[in-house]
Amino acid sequence: MRLNDYHLRYEEYLVKFEKYALNYMNKLQTRPEVLGESMRYSLLNGGKRIRPVLALASAEVLGVDAEEILPFALALEMIHTYSLIHDDLPAMDNDDFRRGKPTSHKAFGEANAILAGDGLLNEAYAICLEESLKGEKYAVAAKFLNECAGINGMIVGQSADLYFSQCEQEVSEEDLLYIYEHKTGKLLLAPVSMASILKENKSYVEFERFGKLLGLLFQMTDDILDVTGDFNDLGKNVGKDEGKNKLTCVRIYGLEGAKVRADMCAKDCHAVLESIDGDTSFLHSLVDYVLNRRN
Length: 295
Fold this sequence. Notes:
Order of helices and strands: HHHHEEHHHHHHHHHHH
CATH topology: Farnesyl Diphosphate Synthase
Mean pLDDT: 94
Structural class: mainly alpha
Low-confidence stretches: none
Shape: globular
Radius of gyration: 18 Å
CATH superfamily: Farnesyl Diphosphate Synthase
Strand content: under 5%
Strand order of the largest sheet: 1-2
Distance between the termini: 21 Å
């Protein structure tokens, strides 16, 4: 797919999701209003939206209507956003900026930031429960998202990330891959797998493999950008991984070794997409974007 066509398609998915998310959040009423305001502040603060875009793009490849996947895409983005709010807190990564704006705890205070994250997480599951009432495949998709986000998914990845940054014993590549698979990988596996589930598991094995590889690639490039990127592109402070003794691919492989492994992972992503029946040209371009991204 030509670069311009890729950007146009990405924008189409992005606009569709943003409209849906904005409509949903505008209907959300809270008392006191600061709860809803802080939830909207973080959820509607732009970003790449790679997870909902992945959901919509995968659904299109499979022939799933956008209206079917959008509620799950919003729930997923709510979960992702709550994790960022909590990850930015002083007790975790202590970040002051996210997407070029003050983090939630800087804008609203720590207590309100915690509650905003809690609110987004619970609202995500409210959406999933509502969708589950439509039938079995919707319930299975909701359960899958729960597993990807929970104590055997993203949360355990966050826990492992914290543990190994404070661990004095020698760390290994196996430890690194465990963090990658759970902390980042699970929430990139979720959108493509949920799309397949909503199509009665069509091409499930291939999409599952693709989601896992893309999650690995995304976190590799994230680690690399923490060394090579800058604030203006990323919208957040850089160079924090080394200062916090984070277990990253740069720490394990070195910067050049990490870049080589990212290239290899991108090639594996492309190989899996070639085996999927359907127009995967956008997903191919998305892999190239993730590999070469600057933010």
